[in-house]
Specification:
alpha/beta; 2 domains; seven-stranded mixed β-sheet; 15 helices; Ald_DH_CS_GLU; Ald_DH_CS_CYS
């Protein structure tokens, strides 16, 4: 890149910079081969605070030409990065981790302002995201091959684990920091270079993480960032995946978009990892600790205002404890505080955009029309804008839309069931299979249910199941591949067999 062109500065940008301890975290555009900006003026990308509607920044969006330049930069850097000894890649990852920790407060504030989640929750995500960088710094040093038994005394067979090559990482808006590090850290550890395309809703967190990677000393071209608008995201994505130098796609987002990307990736037979939509069941059996189950349902359902792929989308409660559990959950939900994430004590921020609010309203209206009762909430919050009341629906049945579509909002629908077999059938009655949870004191039931649930991740008496040390991923239409644990780095490695003869 030779000429950098930025969009005109927005007056709102200066106040945002003034709120940060380190204003250099704000850049005006993408990051390609070690340079910030755009090779040619394409369009402006506005960034808005969902809590207030305030314009936070105006960024220079990347063009198709920028996308191709990003791939070129990543491809040029690939061989040198892969050739670095693992301990040197690990040291650079640890330097990036240190930068993230040192800037955690600013990263949290940026996330809250552009995404909406409460500040304490945003800071928790920053630390969660940083944990993947530290974890994969260690995993970089544990990529081993094998010596295999062979059929002949004069032959030896070796296997090598080698980086797959240039990675396109496409990340969502609901976890704008952690989903980047959960993809980029194992890719970097494996020896892959990256072209990162974050959501157009939340580019500031991605920019800040790339600034910190540069400050940590990660070489130019190893991490590249392209920023899209809603108008050009499809053509930029197509340009990235049609480039023969790209060898891997890692995507987190909706199932519909994942299917489209998978079709594009097929033309070049890319290695693919997809974490897609969910419809998580949370099952409460009659022998459960109801207080623990209610705490778990609250934590799972209302985290990030219900805007998570793994949150409890359907809460199935055995009929004999249905009313008692509902009362405990309503008591907890009633104490949630709605407001801008920067206000003290707020636990529920705004939804991401008007389309999200409309979807929640459609699901609630459909449930009420088919006989459900809203015992708490059920409407947009009195604050207006993108705020929605934390909601509990009773008398929900499987025929309702909310049981089959991902709501992505702060609505807890409770369904009654009678037997274990019925609960299992209801839980598995979905095209999705990302995560699910159940509460019981019966060990035999716990083992039966955990094995028979058609899910990629199961929490037993626990509703918070993600960490850097465990694999997360879906079955059925919830995705392909795993992120986290040692499984996460496997997604960015190829196995090469070497046969040596004439010994």
């Amino acid at each position: 890149m030779t000429t950098l062109t930025a969009c005109p500065a927005d007056p709102a940008h200066a106040p945002l910079a003034g709120q940060l301890q380190h204003s250099y975290l704000l850049q005006q555009g993408g990051f390609i081969n070690g340079q910030w900006g755009s090779a040619a003026a394409h369009a402006c990308l506005p960034v808005t605070d969902p809590a207030t509607g305030q314009r936070l920044a105006t960024l220079a969006a990347s063009s198709v030409g920028d996308a191709r330049e990003a791939v070129r930069g990543a491809s040029a850097a690939q061989a040198g990065w892969a050739a670095l000894p693992a301990r040197e890649r690990a040291a650079l990852l640890m330097a990036w981790h240190a930068q993230i920790i040192a800037h955690a407060d600013d990263l949290a504030l940026l996330m809250t302002r552009e995404q909406g989640k409460p500040l304490a929750e945003a800071r928790g995500e920053v630390m969660f995201g940083a944990s993947f960088v530290a974890w994969y710094a260690e995993e970089a040093k544990r990529v081993h091959g094998e010596v295999l038994q062979t059929y002949s005394a004069d032959r030896r067979v070796l296997t090598l684990r080698q980086p797959v090559g240039v990675v396109v990482a496409i990340t969502p808006w609901n976890f704008p920091s952690a989903m980047i590090t959960r993809k980029c850290a194992p890719a970097l550890a494996a020896g892959c270079s990256i072209v990162l395309k974050p959501s157009e809703e939340t580019p500031l967190s991605a920019i800040a993480l790339c600034v910190l990677a540069q400050r940590a000393g990660i070489p130019d071209g190893v991490i590249n960032l392209v920023l899209c608008t809603r108008d050009n995201v499809a053509e930029v994505g197509r340009a990235l995946l049609e480039d023969s130098r790209v060898r891997k796609l890692s995507f987190t987002g909706s199932t519909q978009t994942g299917k489209t990307l998978m079709r594009l990736a097929a033309d070049n037979v890319l290695k693919v990892s997809l974490e897609l939509g969910g419809n998580a069941p949370l099952i409460v059996f009659d022998d459960a600790d109801l207080d623990r189950a209610a705490d778990g349902a609250l934590a799972s359902k209302f985290r990030n205002m219900g805007q998570t792929c793994t949150c409890a989308n359907r809460i199935l409660v055995q009929r004999s404890v249905y009313e008692a559990f509902a009362a405990k959950l309503v008591e907890r939900v009633r104490n949630l505080k709605v407001g801008p994430g920067t206000e003290p004590g707020v636990t529920q921020g705004p939804l991401i955009n008007h389309q999200a609010v409309q979807k929640v309203q459609r699901h609630v209206a459909d449930a009420l029309a088919h006989g459900a009762r809203a015992v708490l909430g059920g409407k947009p919050d009195a604050r207006g804008g993108l705020f929605f009341q934390p909601t509990v629906l009773l008398d929900v049945t499987p025929r309702m839309r909310i049981c089959h579509e991902e709501t992505f909002g702060p609505v807890a629908p409770l369904l009654a069931f009678d037997t274990e077999e019925e609960a299992l059938a209801l839980a598995n009655d979905s095209s999705y299979g990302l995560a699910g949870y159940f509460y019981t004191r019966d060990l035999a039931r716990a083992l039966r249910m955990a094995e028979r649930l058609e899910l990629g991740a199961v929490g037993v008496n626990e509703a918070v199941i993600s960490s850097e040390a465990v694999p997360i991923g879906g079955v059925k239409q919830s995705g392909i591949g795993r992120e986290g644990a040692h499984h996460g780095i496997d997604e960015f490695l190829e196995t090469k067999q070497i046969t040596i003869g004439a010994l």
